[in-house]
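Hypothesis: this fold can be encoded by more than one sequence.
Test: take the structure tokens below, design a sequence, compare later.
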């Protein structure tokens, strides 16, 4: 609203006149096609924000496409005001007619019982096999979304008319009245009272991709499961012929009727035994006492009490257990690498059951895995992200598995309860006394406190977006420990120090190293990572007095043991002596192996480095150097191949040329030979 007030409205020649006649279908279609993105944005802003973003995008497109009249429309009476500016082609009667029809349809969508109907039925646009949603925005877009969610439908319509449509107050009142708004003045006042962020210098947040339903990001639904469904249908037809006789057998045939029977999200049971039946009984689900963690032998998930406002809902637990044992075709199942997605061996432990945002979430633990069951709380598809923790698809039911065997202490500090709209909500352990949101790229910033409710559930906090530019990396500090979301149900722990005794990321040096390492975490999403440790194994003086460079080895451990990822980087001084946390340069990477780990805390790495005048004391002629460094056990380094040389100790710096491909080896104190990380 602040950008709208700052603009000087231009006179609209049609706003004070009258026009008679008809707007024919061809004229309306031309206006709709020419201004289609503008009309879809208008519908998107007015539609109820409580629905999922994917559903809201499709509904906005449907509203605009259905706004085309079937026959010439009478245009007798006061001229419908168009966007300010006499030269604006949107001032034509065709656009004003289509815009009015969009307003009427979008406003009717958010009133009373109609909001629960499909919007609009039954011609909702669909893109089979894809999920579409707008791109995520920043803090300004999130603040604007929250402000719009607090407005009524007429208030959002008034905001859209006075904002993106640039109408004057008098014109907006007339359009609202023509759209059927009962109290137009109240709607305009409500929009005027809305505090919206200022945005950037060249545009307001409402003009960003966050609110542009025509600038979409597409993700597949589930390619493998779709292929499996075809084979399953063929096999199922034959199985029905063979198993049809079982329907008449004693014991209920396919199983009991109800939410976990034929009409629910769970598939029919194909086998029965005592252990499997016990795992399906909600009365046998275990729960730790509220204070059990205080006297437990170790603090892990087994010491978590059952929390949430639905822990006593037997019907909900029965559905969750049934879907866990037999996920139906409409259930989306995800599992971190190396995590079994099968049923529980016996009754699991309940960690949480309650409503989180637009979903009902149940968190269970069977000793080896944390399992998250989610179903839509309001009859919609739940949240709208393509992420594994978001509800999606037919029944709006998801089932997520994360391996957590051996998790204790800080490894069991938090679980991701919800992820939507670029934010996550953590459920923290009962022993966590404080939570702060920090940006790893700002090592000197104190961060901000994160509010938690009585159940230990945090308010939504931002997370790093896949594919986005690394301008920030949020992390959650629980006491002295640091956790970050890597698109999995359990966040990864971040540590700093020697591999055999890593510590918390607390000191100034540790925070600085992680500030220049954080952007490398993007390569670890969805890999089942349990902990990531950064270790500054050497600090080397640069040639020509250009300062010193830090050599850092970062190793990511997984819950399954195998599949670790190690990469080395060099962190040189910022050019020109500027301060800041510029990302380090990765020089080597290894999949698996023991380098930089507790079993083999040693490493050798090298890089071709160009000295420039931008560094204090650097060479203005831009000479190239081969730099290499090893951990403390290294006694000498040798270079062969494109560059030849040798140096005693654990540092090497010899002149080189661009494009050289040297080979590096080192000798350890015990005489063993060490090669570079690869």
């Amino acid at each position: 609203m602040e950008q709208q007030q700052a603009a000087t409205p231009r006179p609209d020649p049609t706003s004070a006149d009258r026009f008679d006649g008809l707007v024919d279908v061809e004229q309306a279609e031309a206006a709709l096609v020419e201004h289609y993105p503008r009309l879809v944005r208008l519908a998107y802003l007015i539609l109820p924000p409580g629905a999922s973003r994917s559903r809201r995008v499709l509904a906005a497109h449907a509203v605009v496409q259905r706004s085309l009249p079937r026959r010439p429309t009478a245009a007798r009476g006061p001229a419908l005001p168009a966007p300010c500016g006499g030269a604006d082609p949107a001032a034509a009667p065709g656009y004003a007619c289509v815009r009015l029809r969009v307003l009427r349809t979008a406003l009717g969508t958010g009133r009373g019982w109609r909001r629960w109907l499909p919007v609009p039925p039954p011609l909702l646009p669909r893109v089979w096999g894809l999920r579409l949603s707008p791109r995520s925005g920043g803090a300004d877009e999130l603040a604007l979304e929250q402000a719009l969610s607090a407005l009524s439908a007429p208030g959002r319509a008034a905001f859209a008319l006075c904002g993106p449509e640039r109408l004057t107050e008098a014109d907006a009142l007339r359009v609202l009245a023509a759209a059927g708004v009962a109290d137009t003045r109240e709607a305009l006042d409500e929009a005027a009272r809305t505090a919206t962020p200022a945005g950037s210098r060249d545009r307001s947040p409402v003009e960003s991709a966050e609110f542009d339903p025509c600038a979409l990001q597409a993700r597949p639904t589930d390619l493998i499961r779709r292929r499996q469904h075809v084979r399953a249908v063929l096999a199922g037809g034959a199985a029905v012929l063979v198993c049809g006789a079982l329907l008449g057998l004693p014991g209920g045939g396919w199983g009991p009727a109800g939410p976990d029977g034929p009409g629910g999200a769970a598939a029919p049971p194909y086998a029965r035994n005592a252990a499997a039946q016990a795992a399906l009984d909600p009365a046998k689900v275990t729960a730790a006492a509220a204070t059990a963690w205080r006297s437990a032998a170790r603090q892990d998930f087994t010491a978590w009490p059952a929390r949430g406002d639905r822990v006593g809902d037997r019907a909900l637990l029965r559905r969750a257990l049934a879907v866990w044992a037999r996920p139906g075709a409409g259930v989306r199942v995800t599992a971190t690498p190396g995590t079994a997605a099968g049923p529980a061996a016996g009754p699991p432990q309940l960690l949480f059951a309650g409503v989180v945002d637009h979903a009902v979430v149940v968190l269970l633990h069977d000793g080896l895995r944390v399992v998250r069951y989610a179903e839509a709380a309001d009859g919609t598809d739940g949240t709208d992200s393509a992420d594994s923790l978001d509800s999606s698809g037919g029944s709006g039911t998801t089932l997520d598995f994360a391996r957590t065997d051996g998790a204790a202490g800080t490894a069991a500090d938090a679980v991701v309860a919800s992820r939507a709209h670029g934010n996550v909500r953590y459920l923290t352990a009962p022993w966590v006394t404080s939570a702060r949101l920090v940006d790893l790229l700002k090592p000197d910033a104190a961060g901000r406190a994160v509010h938690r409710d009585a159940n230990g559930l945090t308010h939504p906090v931002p997370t790093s977006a896949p594919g986005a530019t690394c301008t920030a990396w949020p992390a959650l500090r629980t006491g002295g420990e640091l956790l970050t979301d890597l698109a999995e149900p359990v966040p990864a722990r971040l540590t700093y120090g020697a591999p055999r005794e890593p510590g918390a990321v607390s000191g100034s040096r540790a925070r600085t190293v992680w500030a220049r390492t954080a952007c490398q975490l993007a390569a670890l999403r969805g890999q089942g990572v349990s902990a990531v440790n950064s270790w500054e194994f050497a600090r080397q003086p640069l040639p020509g007095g250009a300062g010193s460079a830090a050599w850092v080895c970062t190793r990511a451990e997984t819950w399954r043991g195998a599949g670790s990822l190690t990469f080395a980087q060099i962190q040189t001084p910022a050019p020109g002596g500027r301060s800041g946390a510029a990302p380090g340069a990765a020089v080597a990477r290894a999949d698996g192996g023991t380098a930089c780990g507790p079993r083999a805390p040693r490493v050798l790495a090298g890089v071709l480095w160009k000295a420039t005048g931008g560094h204090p004391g650097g060479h203005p002629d831009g000479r190239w150097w081969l730099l290499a460094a090893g951990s403390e056990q290294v006694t000498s380094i040798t270079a062969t191949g494109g560059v030849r040389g040798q140096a005693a100790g654990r540092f090497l710096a010899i002149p080189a040329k661009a494009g050289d491909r040297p080979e590096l080896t080192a000798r350890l104190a015990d005489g063993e030979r060490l090669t570079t990380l690869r």
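The first strand starts at residue 22 and ends at 23. The two ends are 55 Å apart (CA to CA).
Hypothesis status: open.
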